[in-house]
Design goal:
The complex is a heterotrimer of chains A (about 400), B (about 230) and C (about 400). Chain A contains 17 helices and ten strands. With about 400 residues, chain A is α+β, with helices and mostly antiparallel strands. Chain A has two domains: about 200 residues, no CATH class; about 200 residues, no CATH class. The mean pLDDT of chain A is about 85. In chain B, helix 3 runs parallel beside helix 5. In chain B, the strands form two sheets. Chain B has a six-stranded mixed beta sheet with strand order 6-7-8-3-9-10, sandwiched between helices. A four-stranded antiparallel beta sheet of chain B has the order 2-1-4-5, with helices on one face. Chain B starts with a strand and ends with a strand. The relative contact order of chain B is 0.19. Chain C is about 55% helix and about 15% strand. In chain C, helix 1 packs across helix 12, helix 2 runs antiparallel to helix 10 and helix 2 crosses helix 12. Chain C folds into two domains: about 200 residues, no CATH class; about 180 residues, no CATH class. Classes of the chains: A alpha+beta (about 400), B alpha/beta (about 230), C alpha+beta (about 400). Chains A and C meet through helix 2, strand 2, strand 3, strand 6 and strand 7 of A and helix 2, strand 2, strand 3, strand 6 and helix 10 of C.
Chain lengths: ~400, ~230, ~400
């Protein structure tokens, strides 16, 4: 208790103008924490939104495929039932994803696109895909009726009811892939909010196209129950036991490159922002060693009246801890509070810069929200504390080792 | 021809400490003429140093006025007061207070450089003064390498480098041994006389005081001329 | 103002002599820390600018050109003819472009097909690619194509083998016929995002499959120093050729990529500013320490007639000189290390980290002196402001107090 009291006193000691140095360092730590929390929470939200969209719309939580040459007698429905019974699996959607050429004779426009042939029940049941997707016009896909993404519909100048020619590569008689042209009707237009998906994807029902393309290309997209989506190991094990020959991939594996890129960006941002704390730690080291120099006599007297050799060390590390913890607390409170209103802050900044540039800044005009990860914040706080303590010890270690009488003659 | 250099008119100096007030100088009148040497004696804590600080523009009186060559010091702003001290006053302190990181020569040059004199001219003048006080072989020595007497001689040279009108010395021999004190006493009084300067000095040293043309006793917050 | 004294004192503060070992070490450490702060900032700038320029170059030189003039017939006999109309133009290539699906035995890939002549791969473009094989060399009646190594890997094909492709047809025919093509060469641009969807085809072959009224255009390349003059260059061309062309510029084709770059730059510069702000606070603490350590000297200088502004100027100059030295050393070291950044990136590229495919790791080092100047000036300005705030302490040092008179 005495050590803590002394540490507090020393942290805000007026000797050698240490108090003003302490306050500056504390504010620096607060600003650093605030900056790191805001940046990382913005990144967390952007990345988690993106990944949510990707795994809900693009890749599902888990994908199960079977070898093309396997024929164990099981039908698609058998496989779907078996997968649905697996603990942790919420929904199963067999589908085929393939590239197609699509022509709209009504407008003379054509392009390549991706066709997703999937059970239409995905639109009507509650699942991550239907939660995010909205039919903007028309109706859900049905046999030989397609729904297109909004951007793709615009590209083809597609109107509801238009008959379009769709050329797919399906199973041939003598070759694996052979083109087949089918006439389908534009039945609806959807929006998912994922620009890549909306600009390149058509969706239609399983029948009759899956038989044209070939059932060997079916991929089973699984949505898992809450809690299993990011920790799917038990589910994967169960599926592997049921279907030993199946290839099972999680959404992380399907999007490994993308996921890895996001992680890399985050790590780089950590490193850059952490740099600020290194500068502050050097500041703290200098301030602490200067204060220790000034307090030599006091510490010598404490030793003379019975304080242990490690008291000085504890007091100085204690004052560093106090300053760092106070600074971090201010920074965390500020960061979390500012994070809640970040959209308004950016909007205000955008208005300010508009006065000078007469143009909206796309970065500042974006409706940002934040997602604070408590574990992340705690680990940053601990790292900063360890860094500060390390630098303080570094700055004071020589003087800590001296004996009282030596300290008294240090001047 | 002597002229009025410094005038204290009804000067009072009080220090406030919490609720109480400690009056050091009260209604003090004093005139110093050019070319004279004045010693002020008195008991410890009587306010001698306070009087010197007010005379040198380092401190302001609580009441009354101080004028130097007809100019009231109280009306000067900080910049004007700094210029006044630099050009008209030379200080010699009890504990010399030299700059430890500078050589003897550099220490003496400082007031001249502050005044704006070219470095070469300042060095020339400083060398002349140091030569006069017998320190020509100590020009590049730092204060740590000089004896007490030598340091005080450097301080005297520093006080004279800008040829000020008034030398203010506060116990110039206070921290020296007898032999060094004797040397400094002679040096100070001789050099002031030779340069035609005015000396205002505080000292306990009766021998040093006796070398001055007038001696005052600071007693009961006022000055009394001694015979 | 007495600048001589300020400069003299500043010199003494910068080169402390005698036994001021601590003071000397402090100055060296301060400059060193500032240098250490600047090095990664400069490296990051070099990487960011180099990569963005590299990616932009890839898109311009291989995919879109600087300007596309949508005219169905060739405008120039040879790519170099255009320089005589406007010296800022380096080449003009007649190109046919469309979309299709290329497939091998059991795999497909969606591609952008670009029909070009062999002269398309000029000196500039060759800097962006590495080939194996003979690009677009016609053999027999089959179309000659050049795939990227990425697409070839996806399809499982090599040079000399055949692939089939379906192209988005002329609307007059609703039947899509697959076409066989010879893989005459493989290319690698080093940028996965581009490679994964770009396929080159012999132009004459491409003209058979893509109607020129909708798919042909002239792709212009402008010299790097005149990239901002695109509108003016087109006006010049129109005047010379006495025709108005529908045209588009590269940032319009790749608006998303372009905007992403701008946004990324803004975010990075924002982070830099935060780091510089903290570094500026550190610089002010150097000033505070120096003042703290020379309080008695400052009091004495004031007694001898030095003004607050003399002393402030001396300390300000000393601290800013130390900061500037650290800045120059840091920027220089950053540039030196940055010039060798290719070695590190090569090692990273071989590390097999999947996420790196979204980045370009083989690019020409570009030093944006404007950006480096901007961060250097920001550092100096921030430091000046923070140091000025610290120098207020000088004003509060009283000669009396420090001289400890009775």
């Amino acid at each position: 208790m005495f050590t803590l009291k002394l540490a507090w006193r020393y942290a805000f000691s007026r000797s050698n103008r240490h108090r003003s140095a302490t306050i500056v360092i504390m504010l620096g730590i607060a600003v650093g924490m605030l900056a790191i929390i805001i940046m990382l929470s913005l990144m967390n939200r952007l990345q988690s939104d993106l990944l949510d969209q990707v795994k809900s719309i693009e890749s599902f939580h888990v994908q199960v495929t079977f070898p093309a040459n396997e024929s164990d007698g099981r039908t698609m429905d058998d496989i779907v039932s078996a997968l649905r019974e697996t603990p942790g699996v919420a929904q199963v959607y067999p589908q085929v994803n393939t590239q197609v050429l699509i022509q709209n004779p009504a407008t003379n426009k054509s392009t390549t696109a991706r066709l997703r042939i999937i059970d239409s029940s995905i639109w009507k049941t509650e699942n991550p895909f239907s939660d995010r997707t909205r039919m903007v016009r028309g109706s859900y896909p049905s046999p030989l009726h397609i729904a297109t993404g909004t951007a793709l519909a615009t590209k083809l100048s597609l109107a509801l009811g238009d008959a379009v020619n769709m050329t797919v590569l399906g199973a041939g008689k003598t070759v694996v892939l052979a083109p087949t042209t089918i006439v389908v009707t534009a039945g609806g237009v959807f929006r998912t909010g994922l620009p890549e998906f909306d600009s390149s994807t058509l969706v239609t029902d399983l029948d009759p196209l899956v038989s044209i393309i070939g059932s060997k290309r079916i991929m089973y997209g699984l949505y898992l129950e809450d809690g299993y989506a990011d920790n799917s190991k038990p589910v994967l094990r169960s599926i592997a036991e049921t279907f030993p020959s199946a290839t099972i991939r999680t959404w992380q594996q399907v999007n490994s490159a993308f996921y890895s890129a996001l992680t890399l960006e985050k790590v780089l941002m950590y490193l850059f922002l952490f740099f600020m704390f290194i500068i502050l730690a050097v500041n703290m080291k200098n301030a602490s060693s200067r204060l220790l120099h000034v307090k030599q006599r006091e510490l010598a007297i404490l030793r003379a009246v019975g304080a242990q050799k490690t008291t000085a060390t504890k007091v100085f590390l204690g004052q560093t801890t106090i300053v760092t913890v106070l600074g971090e607390s201010l920074g965390i409170i500020g960061g979390v509070y500012l994070g809640k209103y970040i959209g308004k802050v950016f909007s205000w900044l955008n208005s300010l810069q508009y006065l000078f540039t007469r143009k909206d800044n796309l970065l500042l005009a974006y409706p940002f929200t934040t997602e604070v990860n408590a574990v992340e914040v705690a680990s940053i706080a601990i790292s900063v504390l360890v860094l500060s303590l390390g630098f303080t010890y570094l700055g004071c270690r020589r003087l800590f080792r001296k004996e009282p009488m030596e300290m008294l003659y240090h001047d | 021809m002597t002229k009025e250099l410094l005038r204290f008119h009804a000067v009072t100096k009080a220090f406030v400490s919490g609720q109480s007030q400690l009056v050091i100088l009260e209604d003090l009148d004093f005139v110093l003429y050019s070319g004279t040497s004045v010693a002020i004696t008195g008991k410890s804590g009587s306010g001698k140093s306070t009087l010197l600080n007010i005379a040198g523009g380092l401190d302001k009186p609580s009441a009354g006025s101080v004028s130097f060559l007809g100019r009231e010091l109280g009306r000067l702003n900080d910049k004007e007061l700094s210029s006044f001290r630099n050009r008209h006053i030379g200080f010699v302190f009890q504990s010399h207070i030299l700059l430890d990181d500078f050589t003897a020569l550099e220490n003496v040059c400082v007031p001249a450089l502050i005044r704006g004199v070219r470095q070469s001219d300042a060095v020339k003048r400083a060398k002349e003064l140091l030569d006069r006080v017998g320190l020509s072989d100590r020009l590049q020595h730092r204060p740590q390498k000089l004896s007490g007497g030598e340091r005080q001689r450097v301080a005297i040279c520093r006080a004279l480098v800008n040829a000020p009108d008034l030398i203010i010395a506060d116990e110039p021999t206070g921290s020296l041994d007898e032999e060094s004190s004797s040397g400094i006493e002679t040096l100070l009084t001789d050099i002031v006389r030779e340069e035609g300067k005015t000396l205002l000095m505080v000292t306990h040293d009766t021998q040093l005081a006796s070398r001055c043309s007038t001696v005052y006793l600071l007693h009961n917050k006022t000055l009394q001329e001694m015979e | 103002m007495n600048t001589r004294f300020s400069m003299w004192l500043s010199g003494h503060l910068l080169v402390p002599r005698g036994e001021s070992k601590y003071a000397r070490l402090r100055l060296v450490r301060s400059a060193a820390l500032i240098a250490i702060v600047m090095i990664p900032l400069v490296l990051a700038l070099i990487f960011m600018d180099g990569m963005m320029n590299g990616i932009t170059d890839k898109y311009i030189l291989l995919q879109d050109g600087h300007i596309q003039l949508h005219v169905e017939d060739p405008l120039f006999d040879s790519p170099r003819d255009v320089s005589s109309i406007d010296p800022r133009l380096e080449s003009a290539d007649y190109v046919v472009s469309g979309y299709g699906i290329v497939y091998s035995r059991d795999t497909t890939a969606e591609v952008r097909i670009k029909g070009v002549d062999s002269s398309y791969f000029n000196e500039n473009r060759m800097t962006q690619l590495e080939f194996t094989g003979e690009p677009l060399k016609k053999e027999g009646s089959l179309a000659a194509v050049m795939l990227s190594t990425t697409i070839a890997r996806t399809l499982g094909v090599e040079v000399g083998q055949r692939v089939a492709f379906m192209v988005v047809p002329d609307s007059s025919s609703s039947v899509v016929r697959p076409v066989l093509a010879n893989v005459t060469a493989l290319y690698d641009s080093g940028y996965h995002e581009l490679d994964s969807s770009l396929l080159f085809m012999n132009r004459d072959d491409a003209l058979r499959y893509f109607p020129k009224d909708r798919n042909a255009y002239t792709e212009l390349l402008v010299s790097p120093d005149h990239v901002d003059d695109l509108g003016e260059i087109v006006s010049n061309l129109e005047l010379s050729l006495d025709e108005n062309f529908p045209y588009a510029t590269w940032d319009e084709f790749n608006g998303t990529v372009y905007q992403n770059f701008i946004t990324s730059r803004q975010v990075i510069l924002l982070v830099f500013m935060m780091i510089l702000l903290v570094a500026g606070v550190y610089v002010s603490s150097i000033a505070q320490e120096m003042i703290q350590d020379s309080m008695q000297s400052i009091a004495l200088f004031k007694t001898l007639g030095a003004t607050n502004s003399n002393l402030s100027r001396a300390y300000f100059c000393s601290v800013m000189v130390v900061t500037s030295i650290g800045l120059v050393v840091g920027v220089s070291l950053g540039l030196l290390i940055g010039s060798q950044i290719g070695v590190l990136l090569h090692w990273l590229g071989n590390s097999g980290l999947a996420g790196l495919q979204y980045y370009l790791l083989d690019f020409r080092i570009v030093i944006s002196w404007r950006d480096i100047l901007a961060i250097s000036i920001s550092m100096l300005v921030i430091s000046s402001v923070t140091v000025r705030l610290s120098l207020g302490r000088i004003r509060r040092i009283s000669p009396l107090e420090m001289l400890q008179q009775d």
